[in-house]
Amino acid sequence: MKKERLRQQYLFWLDMNKPADVELAVTIAELKTCRKFAQTIRDGIRLIEDLRAGRLDMLLTLFPSVTEHLKSPLYGNELAAVLEQFQQAAINRSTNNADSLLQSNVSAVPETKAIFNETEAIQRSVFNTLASLEDF
Fold first, then answer.
1. Measured between alpha carbons, how far is 38 from 88 in angstroms, rounded to an integer?
2. Strands (E), 72-115
3. Cα 88 from Cα 131, distance rounded (Å)
4. pLDDT of res. 127
5. Once rounded to an integer, what is the mean pLDDT over residues 83-92?
6. Domain boundaries along the sequence of the chain
7. Any residues with CB less than 8 A from the CB of 16 and at least 6 apart, and which?
8. How far is CA 75 from CA 36, 55, 114, in A?
9. Rounded distance between C-alpha atoms, residue 82 and residue 65, angstroms
10. What's the Rg (C-alpha) of the chain?
């Protein structure tokens, strides 16, 4: 008995009047030559879905250099300052009673900042994720 194949094919269109779509067509041709097109599409969709859900697992799996990049001096100083504030808050919690904790945390809370740039929002999301993982 022959086994039934459970494969599906999805088609999409590129508008060759748009320069961005022309660039995609060139990239697709290169990926197909290297037999990496299907895996790139799968990875890309998984990555987008993961990021939309607020997770960075796929990003860090596919691009481990992102973690190192965020630890660079450009980003590392800001991350280190935030981690220091969290550590100080934890020390204050363990040594002080609840009243002094409330007073000390007023100065330890990082300043909130409205983010209007999507790239900056993604970077801050990554900082927050790395900061929360630092305690593990």
1. 48
2. none
3. 14
4. 65
5. 67
6. 19-63, 66-134
7. 22, 25
8. 32, 20, 18
9. 22
10. 23
- Number of neighbouring beta carbons within 10 Å of residue 12: 5
Give the model confidence (pLDDT) of 29-83 as tens digits.
999 999 999 999 999 999 999 888 888 889 888 988 877 776 666 665 666 666 6
* Spacing of C-alpha 99 from chain mean position: 37
- Residue 125: CB atoms within 10 A of its CB come to 14
Phi, psi dihedral angles at 112 (to 5 degrees): -80, 150
Place of tokens 């040594």: 95
pLDDT tens-digit profile of 95-129? 554 455 445 444 444 555 554 566 666 666 666 66
With beta carbons less than 8 A apart as the criterion, state whether 112 and 99 touch: no
Residues in the chain: 136
Task: Quote the DSSP letter at residue 97.
Answer: -
User: Within 10 Å of residue 126's Cβ, how many Cβ atoms?
Assistant: 19
